[in-house]
Design goal:
- The chain is α+β, with helices and mostly antiparallel strands.
- The protein is 18% helix and 29% strand.
- It has 2 helices and 12 strands; from the N terminus they run H-E-E-E-E-E-E-E-E-E-H-E-E-E.
- The strands form 2 sheets. Strands 1, 2, 3, 4, 9, 10, 11 and 12 form an 8-stranded antiparallel sheet that branches. It has a 4-stranded antiparallel sheet with strand order 7-6-5-8, with no helix packed on it.
- Belongs to the peptidase S26 family.
Length: 187
Amino acid sequence: MAKKKKNEWVEWTKALLVALGLAFIVRMFLFAPIIVDGPSMLPTLHDRDQMIVNKFSYYFHDPERFDIVVFHASSQKDFIKRVIGLPGEHVAVIDDVLYIDGDPVEENFLPENDSDANTFDSVRNDFSLEEIPGNYEVIPEGHVLVLGDNRGNSTDSRMIGLISMDQIVGKTSLIYWPFDRIQFVGE
């Protein structure tokens, strides 16, 4: 009887170790939670929204325009922003209109710029690629330009420069908390 009980404990221990190992693999290489910190992605994402980061999607393809990505802004801090510019492109915002290689591009995720449409700062801040850190004429290979949706209140490529593909943790599109905001977001 004692031997049977000991074998049962050994089996439970093995099962627990396998479960912990699988959880570690999933967390490190596949999916991870992130909490939105601040208003930089309003109105799409709200402060304290909790999301799932898909860490493996960019193993198979590069980020696409308007993907919402999580990246290492520093060794202590991850940011969540939207990919706007891709390698080989010139990006500018003039009079609140996004231009890629001189052509206007619609940003359907941004609110209309009228006085009663929003309760947050909708200033978009005009800029061109040459004005951001690095003084580039086009986005180099292996980099993307990211912006927050709330352009008047976002620390993004306009201040920190272009983001290397190596800095990108993954893509995120699922808000899972709070319950009343559960949804897929993105273009």
